[in-house]
Amino acid sequence: MNPPNGAASVATNTAVQVVFSKAMDPASFDPANSFKLIDSSLNVVPATITFSPDYTTATLQPTSNLASGANYDLFISYFATVYDLAGNRFAPTIVFFTTQ
Q: How many domains does one find in the chain?
């Protein structure tokens, strides 16, 4: 995970990356539901999602810089499920960080 869970002073222009142990199904990833970043006001951060060629790394790139000194939560498979290419469900996970 980059930034790591609980990180502080994260750059406001950061992209969030998650590395999975198995190839993931990109069709199950949605920045508004299954793989979403939420700010401290509970707003979904508009973003795009890209994958490494082997589908083991997902990158969530906000469409604009994050707010300075703000808290963010990344919800993975929490509101809607993400799956690997074999059809296995990824366990719901929440990761948080604070920007500089």
A: 1
